[in-house]
Structure formats: C-alpha cells, structure tokens
C-alpha cells in the first residue's frame, strides 16, 4: 500500500536535476536500491499512540480498534522511525550544503574547466561536466545512504547483503547519471535558444518525458532491481479472488495486470503498489505480503491498490507533478539570475550559459525539492486516503467482517514494517506520503456508511 509512483515522478525530472536520490526513490523507482531510511517516505508510518506496552493484540470485543504494539515492538518502531526522520533532514541538508560548497569553493568552476579542456564541443563538455557534478554530490550524501541501509538491516527490515545492495546502488547511479545527462543537454539547448523562456520550453519538453518514464518504469527500470511475474502463475486462487473483486466493482481488471514481486529476496517488509500508465498500468504485490498476511488481509491490501488503479491516481499524480514542475521551473529561472547577479564573480561563473551555472540550478532545485515535499506529500496522502475508502468499499459484503479484516491488515503491516505508532504532526505534514497508520486503522475499523443508510463513495 505504499507508494504509488508518480506522486514524486514530478519531482523526478526535478530530482534528476537535483540528483536528490531519495526523491525518486520514495516512489518506486528503486525500491531495491533505495537507501532506505534516508529520504524515505518508506514505511508508511502511523500515528496516535496507544498506551504503549501491554495489549499484545487487541481488545476482544471491539476487535482491532486501535494500532497497538507489544512493548518491544513499540520501542523499535519509535526508535527506527525517529532515526529515519532525522536521516531525511540530514540527507536534504547535505544535498543543499554540498551544492553550495561546490559553488563557494570553486569546485563547480573547476569541473567546468576540466570539461572545457577536454573538448571545444558543447555536447562533449556536457558529457564530462554532468557526471562529475552529479557523482560528486552523490558521494557527499553517500554516508547517509549507507547508514540508512545499515539501520534497516539492524532493525531487520532489509535482509539485503551489502554486495547485492552495492550492485543496486551502482545500477541506480548509472541511471541517475544517464538521465541527468539527457536532461541537462536538453536544458542547455533550451537555455541557449531562449535565454528568457527556457524554463517554459524545458517544461514543455519534460511533460512527454515524465509520461514516457512513468509508462516505462515498470517495464524497464523495476526489473533491474526485482523479479516480476504474473500473480496467477504462483497464486491462481488469489488471482481468481481478485478478479471477482474487480468484476464486482464493475471495473474488471485483466489478470495480466496483476503482478507478483520477489520482495522477499531483499526485505522483510510487507507492501504492494500500483504503477504504470496505459498499457503498462498494473498492480504489484510483494510476495512477503502474501506469505505473512492472512488471505483476506492481502485481499484488502490489493483492494487499496485497485483503488489507485481504478481512480487513475498515477495519471492524476502526473498532472499534479506537471503543475509543480512548472512553478519550480519558473522559480529556477528567476532564482538563477538572482543568484548570478549577486555571486557570479565569487563563484567564478561567467553567466547563465556557463556549465558551472548548473550547480546553481542544482542548489536551487535541492532547496525547492525539500521545501516542496510537504506539498507533494499532502497530495499523496489525500490519494492514499481515497484508495483506503475504495478498498474498504470493495471488500465490504464480500469478505465477512471486512472492516475488522482491513484494520487487522493495517495492524499486521504496521507491526512488520515498524510503523511509528505516534508520529509528531510536523513529520506527518512534512514527509509522510501516507496518513499515519494508526489513523488509517481507526478509519478502516469504523468506516460504515452502509449501516447509516448512506451511499458508499466509489463502489455502489
Ligand atoms: Zn496506496
């Protein structure tokens, strides 16, 4: 139930610019390579603190009315989540600080000199400059990335050994650098053609790029990190149950669009997601979910993803991203000139067309991306809430005691993924892509328009 892709896809082009690894990661891009912990929206944490300790499962009568953890699990969930929050901010700060230092210390200007010495050809210079800059910034945030993975190993969330992890990390770096080169060459072209409107032209060019990336991510990029196969291959019964659900909703989703991911090779966490666009649109279930949850609970989690699928959340997120990106591009344009007017001489930058000016854009993009997180996450949380409603309505009447089943699914998911039982409101606001898990559980447990004679919102 975690990340649906595109919420951050926007920021994708943006993140590429800013080379803030995390931004893309949280989404889906590299679930595997993702430096867990760091920029993570990762485990959808949760809220509201039950009186900690006791109540190993839940009260008999009310069923699973609240998210409750054993004393040991509670301590772990809180400790793990809090470190993850700190890592998120440290990571963002490092990205910003590194870009600024590169300017201040003349390192960006040095990279430019190197690139210009290699060739007089502008494209070749870009091929030299961009990897230098991107990789240097990535190295600055690498300690946080490493620490994040060490942490997820210590808390037994990840089970991925360092060798495999580094391989994923390397693949991800190659992708980032390749995308960054493509994006920067495009940006450079736009900037030279139109010094005053490049931000608009670049944005126009970014729209099809975002669309193609969203379309191709499940086909090309995800398989670099995980193995996928149609769910029906190993779980024909579950697939049949899912088909029944989708038929009931009047929106039949073909079997070929439900996939199984071998998450258990790398993680203990339980999850699922919806991704893709058009012909690549699909729901993906982590094998850990099927292995660790009860079949009915898995069905609820799948129903939530079907909500994303049916309600077109990926497409909506692309539209949202496009708007965010337009604003961001304009601010980058204004910010670049504002900064150059003041510090160009200090930073040894000749003008907007100097390669080193890209480091200024990077600095600004890092800042905007950080400041924009609450906006993007707020949007994502609202989609997640709607997907929860859809999921609850879909299983109602089909699975006995469906509200309890859903609440139980949240409970189990929270326990296994160490969801924070009591996240401070500020962190929820800033970096939660999902509503706090405890809130979702309470909502699920009490959602009942039927008994009040009200019409359900999505599934009639
Ligand atoms: Zn979701």
Assembly type of the chains comes to single chain
The biggest sheet amounts to: 4 strands, mixed
User: How many strand units?
Assistant: 4
Q: Give the SSE order as H and E letters.
A: HHHHHHHEHHEEEHHHHHHH
Poorly predicted runs of 5 or more residues: 1-61
Strand order of the largest sheet: 1-2-4-3
Which structural class fits the helix and strand makeup? Answer: mainly alpha
How large is the count of helical segments? 16
Tell me about this structure.
The protein is mainly alpha-helical and 460 residues long. The protein has one domain. A 4-stranded mixed beta sheet has the order 1-2-4-3. Helix 1 packs antiparallel against helix 13 (357-395). Mean pLDDT is 86; it is low at 1-61. A hairpin with a 6-residue loop joins strand 3 and strand 4 (282-286). The radius of gyration is 23 Å and the shape is elongated. It is built from 16 helices and 4 strands. The chain is 64% helix and 3% strand. It binds zinc ion. Zinc ion is lined by residues 1, 4, 304, 308, 384, 387.
Task: Pick out its properties.
about 450 residues, mainly alpha, 4-stranded mixed sheet, 4 strands, about 65% helix, binds zinc ion
Brief digest:
Strands 1-2-4-3 form a four-stranded mixed sheet. By secondary structure, the chain is mainly α.
Secondary-structure map:
Blueprint (H helix, E strand, L loop, with lengths): L9 H9 L2 H7 L43 H34 L2 H12 L3 H33 L7 H32 L4 H24 L6 E3 H4 L1 H13 L9 E4 L10 E4 L6 E5 H6 L2 H16 L2 H31 L13 H39 L6 H16 L7 H7 L5 H10 L14
Parallel strand pairs: 2-4
Antiparallel strand pairs: 1-2, 3-4
Helix pairs in contact: 1-2, 1-12, 1-13, 3-5, 3-13, 4-5, 5-6, 6-7, 7-12, 9-11, 11-13, 11-14, 12-13, 14-16
The chain binds zinc ion (ZN).
């Amino acid at each position: 139930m975690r990340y649906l892709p595109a919420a951050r896809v926007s920021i994708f082009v943006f993140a590429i610019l800013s080379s803030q690894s995390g931004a893309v990661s949280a989404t889906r891009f590299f679930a595997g390579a993702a430096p867990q912990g760091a920029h993570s929206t990762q485990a959808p944490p949760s809220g509201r603190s039950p009186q900690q300790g006791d109540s190993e499962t839940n009260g008999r009568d009310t069923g699973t009315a609240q998210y409750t953890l054993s004393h040991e699990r509670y301590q772990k969930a809180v400790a793990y989540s809090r470190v993850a929050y700190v890592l998120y901010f440290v990571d963002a700060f490092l990205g910003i600080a590194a870009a600024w230092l590169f300017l201040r210390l003349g390192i960006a200007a040095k990279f430019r000199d190197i690139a210009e010495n290699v060739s007089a050809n502008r494209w070749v210079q870009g091929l030299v400059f961009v990897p230098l800059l991107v990789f240097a910034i990535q190295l600055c945030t690498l300690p946080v990335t490493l620490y994040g993975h060490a942490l997820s190993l210590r808390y037994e969330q990840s089970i991925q050994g360092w060798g495999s992890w580094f391989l994923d990390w390397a693949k991800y770096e190659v992708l980032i650098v390749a995308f960054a080169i493509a994006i920067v060459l495009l940006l450079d072209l736009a900037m030279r053609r139109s010094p005053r409107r490049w931000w608009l032209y670049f944005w126009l060019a970014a729209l099809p790029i975002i669309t193609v990336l969203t379309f191709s991510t499940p086909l090309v990029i995800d398989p670099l990190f995980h193995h996928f196969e149609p769910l029906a291959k190993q779980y024909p019964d579950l697939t049949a149950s899912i088909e029944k659900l989708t038929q009931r909703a009047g929106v039949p989703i073909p079997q070929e669009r439900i996939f199984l991911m071998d998450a258990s090779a790398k993680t203990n966490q339980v999850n699922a997601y919806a991704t893709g666009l058009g012909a690549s649109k699909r729901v993906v279930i982590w094998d850990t979910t099927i292995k660790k949850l009860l079949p009915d609970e898995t069905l609820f989690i799948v129903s939530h993803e079907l909500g994303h699928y049916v309600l077109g959340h990926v497409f909506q997120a692309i539209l949202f991203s496009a708007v965010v990106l337009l604003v961001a591009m304009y601010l980058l344009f204004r910010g670049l000139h504002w900064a150059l007017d003041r510090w160009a001489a200090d930073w040894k930058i000749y003008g907007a067309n100097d390669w080193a000016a890209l480091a200024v854009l990077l600095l600004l993009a890092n800042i905007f991306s950080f400041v924009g997180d609450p906006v993007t996450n707020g949007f994502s949380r609202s989609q997640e809430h709607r997907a929860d409603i859809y999921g609850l309505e879909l299983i109602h009447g089909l699975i006995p005691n469906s509200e309890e089943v859903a609440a139980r699914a949240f409970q189990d998911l929270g326990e296994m993924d160490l969801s924070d039982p009591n996240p401070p409101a500020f962190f929820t606001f800033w970096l939660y892509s999902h509503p706090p898990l405890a809130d979702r559980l309470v909502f699920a447990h009490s959602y009942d328009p039927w008994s009040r004679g009200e019409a359900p919102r999505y599934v009639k």
